[in-house]
Write a structure and sequence with these properties.
This protein is of the alpha+beta class and 215 residues long. 32% of the residues lie in helices and 26% in strands. Strand 7 and strand 8 form a beta hairpin.
Length: 215
């Protein structure tokens, strides 16, 4: 547990023991579609194509053939490869793991993540897909895999707030990533404290003391 003091309140940051899979229906919808195959892990999205169907690995000789098929069926796609490193737990990315395993003993291509150009146009209300927009889509897909990896590696957190009197005031969970500034955890926790201070200023007659703490 990590504890941070803010205006005499305590923000307790702990791991989220029941995180939501960011690629599940319980989460916000994803722009990309993850197509993945592994004999021990089920990491792929339930639907691979816009018609709701799922691809079968045995129908293709390699991922290049599969991607070409998806590109044809979907009328053009933007895609990135997805790799998995399996050693005392699994982790995934879109760049590979040569820096830690150049012999590729414990990693390889798991699949790919893609978005059809039609879906991208609908998502962003674009008329055309330019090179700049392709770069934006690739970054979006990269971030989706990063978030999924944070879920797989247990990097999901939440906070509890204790008042200056030691009473629990607020809590929230489901922040992905160990950088609590980037994930928005710290901003939300501090906003919650600021709101509580303003509420106490109005209702509990402690204006002088709390105004000093907010300066």
């Amino acid at each position: 547990m990590e504890e941070i003091k803010y205006k005499d309140y305590t923000i307790q940051i702990t791991s989220d023991e029941c995180p939501i899979n960011p690629r599940s229906d319980d989460f916000n919808s994803c722009l990309g579609t993850l197509v993945a195959f592994h004999r021990r892990y089920s990491l792929s999205d339930d639907k691979h194509l816009s018609d709701g169907s799922k691809l079968k690995a045995e129908n293709f000789n390699n991922f290049d053939e599969m991607i070409a098929h998806v590109n044809k069926v979907e009328g053009g796609i933007v895609w990135l490869p997805v790799y998995m490193y399996d050693h005392s737990g699994i982790t995934i990315n879109t760049g590979g793991y040569n820096s830690i395993d150049s012999a590729r003993w414990d990693w390889g291509q798991l699949g790919f993540i893609y978005v059809s150009k039609k879906k991208a146009r609908d998502w962003y209300s674009w008329k055309t897909i330019t090179k700049t927009r392709i770069n934006k889509l690739e970054e979006y897909l990269r971030n989706e895999i990063k978030t999924f990896d944070q879920y797989l590696t247990g990097e999901v957190y939440g906070y509890q707030i204790l008042t200056p009197d030691g009473e629990e005031d607020d809590s929230c969970w489901g922040f992905y990533g160990s950088n609590h500034e980037e994930s928005g955890l710290m901003e939300q926790a501090k906003n919650s404290i600021d709101c509580d201070i303003q509420h106490r200023l109005k209702t509990e007659g402690i204006q002088t003391e709390l105004e000093l703490k907010t300066e």
